[in-house]
Predict the 3D structure of the following.
Amino acid sequence: MSKRYLIRRLLLVVPVLLGTILIVFALVFLTPGDPVARLAGNKPLAPSTYNEIRAQYHLDQPFVEQYLYYLDGLIHGDLGATFTGRDVSSIIRERFPVTLKLTLGAFAIEVVLGLILAVVAAVKRRTLLDSAILVFTLFMITVPVIVLGFVLQYVFGVKLHWLPVAGIQDGAASYILPSLTLGLGLAASLGRLARSNVLDNMQGEHIRAAIARGLPRRRVVGRHVLKNSLVPIVTILGLDFAYLMGGAVITETIFNLPGLGFSLIQGIKTQNGPMVVGLVTLSAIIFVFTNLFVDLLCARIDPRISYE
Amino acid sequence: MSDPVLTVDDLHVEFRTEDGVVKAVDGVSYELGKGEILAVLGESGSGKTVHARAVLRILDMPPAYITGGRAMLGDVNLFDLDEADMREVRGARIAMLFQDPHTALDPVYTVGDQIIELLRLRRGISTREARAQALELLQWVGIPSPEGRLKAYPHQLSGGIAQRVMVAMAIALDPDVLLADEPTSSLDVTVQAQVLELLGSIVKRTEMSMVLITHNLAVAVGLADRIAVMYAGQLVELGPAKAVYGDPKHPYSAALLRSIPDIQRRDERLPAITGSPPNLLNAPDGCPFNPRCPYATDVCLTAMPPLEQVADDHLSACYHWDEVER
Amino acid sequence: MSDDLMPPPESEVKPQSVIEAIALPTGGKQLTLWGDVWRKLKRDKRFYVAAFLIIIFVLMAVAPFLFLVKDPSVCPITDSALPMSKAHWFGTDILGCDYYTRVIYGARTSLEVGLIVSSLSIVIALTFGASAGYFGGWVDTVISRWADIWFSIPTILGALLVLTLFNGGGPVLVSLVIVMFAWPDMTRLVRSTVISGKSRGYVRAARTMGSRGRRILRRHVLPNGIAPVLVFAAYVVGSSVGAEAGLTFLGVGLRLPTISWGLQLAVADTRFPEDAYLMFWPSLFLCLLIGAFILLGESLRDAMDPKLFGGDV
């Protein structure tokens, strides 16, 4: 990858990151109305609390300075404080492991299942197996997470009693159904994308040329088709990972997993504005950096990307 | 011809699709001698590329089907071989050169990786040896500073250099026959000449035989010993290059010749062949060229003219071959 | 003879190769490329399934009376949570309303959201994506960075944030909020389609004949670039319906008295798993609607296979 590309890409992070945080901040503090009231929902606040919040966010200063103070806080890991006085960042630190475990579980399912489905379907193209996989994946991407979560919960938890219905008290087993809820859908869409990508690449002229040179088909597919297919796959995996790390709100709600997504919903229900803002900001930051990593990785895989 | 290196005998290739069956190659036969360059001339859709890919058995089957004929390499029918044996033939006995080097090379691996891969796998040598041989090959095809090129990716190379790399890979295993499918069509004109010269010199030095597929008559005449003209999947004329060029015996060849722009001529318009290539899904009876042929008569509409000898070593598939004027 | 010198009118695409000869219709009839797409669609079973379902849902939305529904606002609380019966085909919900009626009426809301989100996304994508792709330079830079910024906020989270701060809203507001965070996806798609279309032969040909930027964009690049957009739009309908259901379920989307499957699911959650039927019916309809649009997208995509558009001139 050319050094120019590397530097350009790294530099790009800065405006995008600042811009994203600005947007989140602006949505809360710049829109008409009283931001404090908005943050507090419709709950009346004691004057002392009200003033505290105003001071915390420097709301008496011009907007630009508010934003800069906020940024300064972020750099120091301070995401603000909730109305009850707790540090948002400490709450995040508490809840993070749960989300992380869920992310890893779902991601593992996505990668393993998704790629297996893709390879099998591509290799066994036009057979019954391929059609079955296509139907299955179509079904999986159709069913929204809400529905799938409830179905799995009902069938395996309530009716069959094989797996815990909710909560994290059962250790690793608690994460099985939630991981499946998220992972199956992701695996299905990855599988379809990877399959069509691989099939497209198998038609490539350079593949035909490699066969024409007498290279064995298996090697050609394994080495040449695969690497050419990698970029969109890596990109999707990165996006999905970032999305998972932001806290899978619906899944954590259905299965009562006290992770970041759950905290977000709690924050909403208790009208705890700072919590919501903090979590969304965190999620966006994770997203930007994951994207950066993915872009650099893709540039290493496909040399044409950095060639400008 | 005594001891042809490659014999294509009554080759038939079909494409079966939802809309019908297309006879892409409809009974093509020729012999290729040692050290000979045979140009296969035709427009898009004539079947010239398909027949070559059929010989090397790299067509996608389905939707393609080889429905008849033989491809004899010496006295072995390539269509009788199993895949493992065919793999041995590819590259080592018959090689193919593709039209666009930038699509025929894998864009995510360096050029060096690809050449070395070929040499290592087919010759069973170590990476270091393969690297040394790769350098030699690149020098052999006239690429300056080959060490740097090995590390380059295909998109970093110019068309001419990239095609030379492809030539290097094609001849790397010392094949008897090279099927060159429009090797210069995607190159700049100045570079075209260089690559053609390279191919010509390789043939001369190694006595390799070459089938040069092209739609460009000038290219054909410049390099070939014999020219085979294809139209709508059929061979319509076959003869020595000078004869086909100087005194064509088929209306289509004559029309092709007439449509070459000539600086000396003072016509106002470029003569073109009227009409368009036939829709192969609904091939008309009789001679496929008849809708566009100035000599066509009733007999041309009913039965396909057979390929017959009309002069020394010169065949034509036309009922009116003696009327054809250049 | 002179006809051979003029470039063929766009509807008369002559076969340039054996493969295109196969792809074009039989008997020398020259159809436009869109005619080809339609022909392929007609042969695809999935298209019929999708179309059938979509028509049914549209009917549910515009003419619910066709489905023998009762009055959705008649909810005698005494009839709360009755099981399925001849009087109430889907039973009743916890407020006593006829569940079948409420589920049918839910279709309107979901379709409204899906329609607004997809059409708005298309407009934004075609305007900004095409401009970014075609004009390049600083236009592209500005638009792409702006898209990157919004793209970095995951749609559901961003929508949660905005809707929380504004205490939820009707279908239009929810749709707008979804678009606010989801627009970069389709815009990027159009941008890359336009970029790859720019270098195609027909654009170069148009240029040599003197067409200028905007005209080329309008008459050549966009019509050919629209295929992937239509496919994506079908998926967008599906995903936005799902997003609205999710947001409403979480409590920030639509509120009563709007009838939404998401609301029904939220309520059903409180009575889960005892009254599982409350969960079942909206889930089923949700899946069918989303599935219909995904199938539509799939069959559109296969019908508009790039092979149809031929190679470079």
